[in-house]
Amino acid sequence: MKPPKTLRARALDILSRQEVSRVGLKRKLAPHAESEEELEKVLDEFAERNWQSDQRYAEAYIHSKSNRYGTLRLKQALAQQGIDADDCREFLPDREDELQTAISVLRKKFKQEAQDLKEKQKQVRFLAYRGFGADTIQTALKTAWNEDEDFYQ
Asked: pLDDT tens digits, residue range 4-60?
């Protein structure tokens, strides 16, 4: 029979597979911790050694999701993981990149321009759900089906 894993070993196992925020790592380790102090000690050590970094997690998360979601949704998801808005600001897509993502997502979901108000509202709701701001949504709806296809590819 194997001896039980230490909290430190469990944390290393988790972090060796993927980047995890401090809040996420704490949530995963909490059921195995003897006390809150022990858990905080391990979390502090890992952060101090830079084995766990909220900035690195934010960068990886944004890099993997920014081709499908808008800035608002990315910020909200990171906030739920305990990531400070300042830690993720530098990794968020700029306005032009976000617009291109909105157009790409819109074209993929809806194959043609909205023919009536009901269809346009459906497209607006879809983009809003994906976390795009109102100005980005309006610009995307106006330019998504322009003749100049190469600009947005």
From this structure: 788 999 999 999 999 999 999 999 999 998 899 999 999 999 999 999 999 999 999
62: in domain: no
Q: What is the CATH number of the domain that holds 32?
A: 1.10.10
pTM passes above 0.85: no
Residues with Cβ < 8 Å from 44, sequence gap 6 or more? none
Structural domain span for residue 17:
1-52
- Hey, what are 90's tokens? 């530098």
Render pLDDT for 79-131 as a digit per residue (tens, 0 to 9): 999 998 887 888 999 999 999 999 999 999 998 888 899 999 999 999 999 99
Amino acid at 25: L
Is residue 6, in this structure, part of any structural domain at all? yes
Q: Which residues of 38-63 are buried (b: 16+ CB within 10 A; e: fewer)?
A: ebeebbeebeeeeebbbbbbbbebbe
Q: Can you list the alpha helix ranges (DSSP code H) found in the chain? A: 7-17, 22-29, 36-48, 54-65, 71-80, 85-89, 95-109, 117-129, 134-143
